Amino acid sequence: MNRSLKIVFLLLIVLQTGPVAAQKFGYIDSEYILNKHPDYKVIQKELEIVSSQWKKEAQNLDKEIKDLTVQLKAEEVLLTEEMYQQRLEQINLKKKESQEFNSRVFGIDGQYFQKQAELMQPLQSKIYDAIERMTRRNNLGMLFDKAAAPSAIIYTDPRHDYSEFVLEELGIEDNK
């Protein structure tokens, strides 16, 4: 009885630790994957075009403010106190308009970041689907992203880098 109890106990231990030992881990570098994807370059160009237009508008507003300020300084001695205050008010309104524009376009939830999210969402979904398929095919229990912002990965062994498998899943060949 004692021997059969030991065998059952040993069998239970093996069955409990078996699935844990079978867990496979890996990592990818999403930045590397994005830079290899041809759609990413198109998105970056489109964002650059939109961004440069908005920057130009912001620069025009700033130039207007500067011109109004220079004009006010030049005509300061010729203006009455009331006229001076009106021009000063006009300059302050332009400054407020400029700040609102910059906040609306380049702020935390600004149009630039909304446009970026809108353009990147389909590509990110495509990459995520490829990652999911590759993870299932390689029986990975966990996959880390080396490029994630607060990354806790200190060292990575290249043998566990699955970035190339994701690129392969996306149909992108490595052109080193």
Query: For the report, how would you describe the main beta sheet?
Result: 2 strands, parallel
Strand content: under 5%
Order of helices and strands: HEHHHHEH
**How does the helix and strand content classify structurally?**
mainly alpha
Arithmetic mean pLDDT:
84
- How many structural domains in the coordinates? 1
Which regions have little confidence, pLDDT < 50, spanning 5+ residues?
none
Overview of this protein structure:
The mean pLDDT is 84. The chain has one domain. It has 176 residues and is mainly alpha-helical. A two-stranded parallel ribbon has the order 1-2. The longest helix is centred in the first third of the chain and has 38 residues, at 38-75. It is elongated. Helices cover 72% and strands 5% of the residues. Residues 44-78 form a coiled coil. GO terms for molecular function: unfolded protein binding. One of its GO terms (biological process) is protein stabilization. Residues 1-22 form the signal peptide. Keywords: Coiled coil, Signal.
Short summary:
Residues 44-78 form a coiled coil. By secondary structure, this protein is mainly alpha-helical. The protein has 6 helices and 2 strands; from the N terminus they run H-E-H-H-H-H-E-H.
What labels describe this entry?
176 residues; mainly alpha; two-stranded parallel ribbon; elongated; OmpH family outer membrane protein; unfolded protein binding
Q: Which secondary structure elements does this structure contain, and how are they paired or packed?
A:
Elements: H1 2-21, E1 25-28, H2 30-36, H3 38-75, H4 81-106, H5 111-137, E2 142-145, H6 163-170
Parallel strand pairs: 1-2
